[in-house]
Amino acid sequence: MTLFTRRRLLKGFAAITGLTVLSRSAVAQVLTPSATEGPFYPNSSMRFDDIDNNLVKIKGKVEQAGGEIIHLKGKILDRKGNPLAKHRIEIWQCDVNGRYLHSGDSRHDGYDNGFQGFGHDITDGNGNYRFTTIKPTVYPGRTPHIHVKVLDSDHELLTTQFYISGDKNNDNDGLYRRMSAEQAKSVSMVFVEHGNVVETNIDVIV
């Protein structure tokens, strides 16, 4: 084998190895990390009849939820960046008092009956989803977070949690600390104010 041929082979092996490492790295960076469902996923009997994507206003009730209202939006994408249409995304979180809409949350603080607690949206043709909810508040022992579940029909694709970027409680949260810096960034909400509207955008990659 000539020196020239040997060099070409070595370059070829290096290129293949580099592509393999890059591909694995790219997948690791884009996939949204999974997280525990937690004990307070409300079953159907615990939910309000209104389970739309506006959690701060329950149909038929005058009062609006307490807390800071935010608009949470983004896309659901596959690992190649293709939008996933007609996928169901659910969120649930505690109210402004730190109470979940769940029979297992038996703490004495009263539940905010103006807060829907659980809602869902169906992605459009471009994979977009959108919610109106409240900025998550502290639940005892946890940093503020929103639970998220993505389904294709009845098939669950992902359960994860969204956090507030830079919140002082994040570093003391066991679930948050398990993630790498890149994973944490991918599920951290950065809020931007446009007039009187506070928005945050998180794309979910499954």
Classify the beta-strand content into a percent band: 25-35%
Radius of gyration: 21 Å
Secondary structure tally: strands: 10
Task: Give the topology string: H per helix, E per strand.
Answer: HEEEEEEHHEEEE
Question: Based on CA inertia axes, which overall geometry fits?
Answer: globular
Low-confidence stretches: 2-29
Largest sheet: 5 strands, mixed
Please state the structural category: alpha/beta
SS summary, helix count: 3
Cα end-to-end separation: 46 Å
Range of helix content: 10-25%
Overall pLDDT, averaged?
88
Overview of this structure, please?
The protein has about 210 residues and is of the alpha/beta class. It has 3 helices and 10 strands. The strands form 2 sheets. Strands 1, 4, 8, 9 and 10 form a 5-stranded mixed sheet that branches. The protein has a 5-stranded mixed sheet with strand order 3-2-5-6-7. A hairpin with a 2-residue loop joins strand 8 and strand 9. The termini are far apart.
Briefly summarize what is shown.
With 206 residues, the chain is α/β, with parallel strands linked by helices. The protein is built from 3 helices and 10 strands; from the N terminus they run H-E-E-E-E-E-E-H-H-E-E-E-E.
Sequence-ordered SSE layout with sheet pairings:
Elements: H1 3-30, E1 69-77, E2 88-92, E3 118-122, E4 128-134, E5 145-152, E6 155-164, H2 174-177, H3 181-186, E7 188-189, E8 192-194, E9 197-201, E10 204-205
Parallel strand pairs: 1-9, 1-10, 6-7
Antiparallel strand pairs: 1-4, 2-3, 2-5, 5-6, 8-9
